[in-house]
Amino acid sequence: MSTVNHHPESSMLVDFSAGNLATAPSICVSAHLHFCNQCRNELLRLDQVGSNLMSEVEPTEVGEHLFDSVMSQIDQLPESDTAEVSSTSDMADSRYPLLVNKLINGSESVPKWRRLSRWLDVAQVTTGQNEYEVALHKICAGGKTPRHNHGGQEFTVVLKGSFSDEQAVYKEGDFLSCQPGDVHQPLGAQNGECICLSALAAPIELSSPFGFLMKPWLRINPM
Amino acid sequence: MLGFTIKLVDENEEPSKKTVLLSTEKRSDQWSMLLVSVAETRDRRAFSQLFTHFAPLLKSFAQASRHEGWFPGLSEDLVQEVMIKVWQKSASYNPEKASATTWIYTVARNCRIDMLRRKSNTQHLPLENEDFWHEADEETPVSLMRQKRSEDKVQSCLARLPKEQDEILRKVYLEGKSHAEASNELGLPLGTVKSRVRLALQKMQILVAPEFRDEIL
Ligand SMILES: [Zn+2]
After folding, report:
1. For the segment B121-154, what is each residue's pLDDT rounded down to a tens digit?
2. What is the DSSP string of A189-221?
3. Which positions in chain A touch B117 (Cβ < 8 Å)?
4. At the topology level of CATH, where does A1-56+94-223 sit?
5. Which residues does residue A117 pair with via DSSP β-bridges, in sequence order?
6. Average pLDDT across chain A, whole number
7. Class in CATH terms, B25-123
8. How far apart are CA A151 and CA A153, in angstroms?
9. In chain B, which among 169-198 make CB contacts under 8 A with chain A?
10. pTM score, whole prediction
């Protein structure tokens, strides 16, 4: 039984189902789906909408040699090519979504934890785009991160453990969407570290006197 | 290897008999049968029947795209790419989860994203598009009967949607516009676009528990 309580809003799932969601938010939605049975079922039904719309269009005749061309390409296909990504980084975890492990192991430079404050580490991953900065965050047990303001949209999925803010407690699989202007202060749970995946659209402003500690996390580094 | 045996249901058969077949958890539409046949025995005749039916639909789907950088000349490339993927990936088709038409739609959507990404992106992304739709192994699909009911609901509701809801769904699914782009194009506030889509989805009973989804408009 799925215990996920926080989901992406339905318009994000629709854009995902239609194939219109940008890469970084898609990574977060996909990671959430790994944990969330409810959204997986919704996605199945959303795909039926796309499928129905596709099958009701007026068909367009295809070139007469197209079938032969497809068959000759099929005849030249190499035998199955299922190269599994071998786990190289200890940051990967078999309980994570496959795509998160692939991001960790397949990044151009191996992601490394960077200390941002006593309580918070960050590790950036390569995602082939610079609209969003995609990274893993690790909040220590009982950790207190600075209160911060979101200058840009941010999506977060909890991969392991839990944290809370003024609004709620977020557990494994939970999906958070912070809008520009939202202010919050994540607190790590007492019973263990918390690891999150996040995609951040633009720099965040600081609202804590200790805010300077946060800066490296917040700057977007075009890769 | 897939262990599904799928029976063809004669269109003239008694409706009561159809129900019996459905309740024994067999997907019985001809396209799903053909696709399973391609997966299990690499059946080229079945594949050619699928091609005859789907290629012209896929071409229209491709031509409907209004993505930046997309042009009509790409349409037959997309058709070829999708049909080759269908052949290659047919073993991963699970008729307990989706009809062949829905599965082929997802392949087409993914190929379209791949083609666009290849065109616009030269940077390193260590993911293939399929990774985004990778499913957990312990997946327990809803019963086929419930699924069939939901497929019918989607289909019959789509046909009766008010024009303004239908228009947006087509923009999103066929033209490939995001909610934000659709709102720009139609000159409507984003909230209006979102709520029209949500109304349509509620009618089709796609949103499981709308009371738990408190989006801000
Ligand atoms: Zn969910």
Report:
1. 656 788 888 888 876 555 555 677 777 888 888 9
2. -TTS-EEEEEEE-SPPEE-STTGGGGHHHHS--
3. 23
4. Jelly Rolls (2.60.120)
5. A120
6. 84
7. mainly alpha
8. 7
9. 169-170, 172-174, 176-179, 181, 194, 197-198
10. 0.85
Q: Which of A34, A44, A108 sits opposite B136 (nearest CB)?
A: A34
* Cα–Cα distance for residue pair B109/A17, rounded to 1 Å: 8
Q: A67 vs B55: CB contact, 8 Å cut-off?
A: yes
Query: Are A10 and B169 inside 8 Å of each other by CB?
Result: no
- CATH code of domain B142-217: 1.10.10.10
* Regions of chain B with pLDDT less than 50: 1-24, 210-217
> Under an 8 A CB cutoff, do A10 and B158 touch?
no
The torsion angles phi and psi of A176, rounded to 5 degrees, stand at -120, 140
SS (H, E, C) A20-41: CCCHHHHHHHHHHHHHCHHHHH
Interface test with B, best of A4, A17, A60 (most B CBs within 10 A): A60
The arithmetic mean of pLDDT across residues A149-163, rounded, is 89
Within an 8 Å CB–CB cutoff, is residue A124 touching chain B?
no
Separation in Å, CA A184 to CA A47, A49, B3: 35, 37, 51
DSSP count for chain A of H helices, then E strands: 6, 12
| Residue among B57, B80, B131 minimizing CB distance to A55 | B57
Please answer yes or no on whether A126 and B125 come within 8 Å at the CB atom.
yes
Q: Does A153 touch chain B (CB under 8 A)?
A: no
Cα(A196) to centroid(ligand 1), Å: 16
ipTM: 0.82
Where do the domains of chain A lie? Answer: 1-56+94-223
A86: number of CA atoms within 13 Å, CB side?
A: 1
**Domain ranges for chain B:** 25-123, 142-217
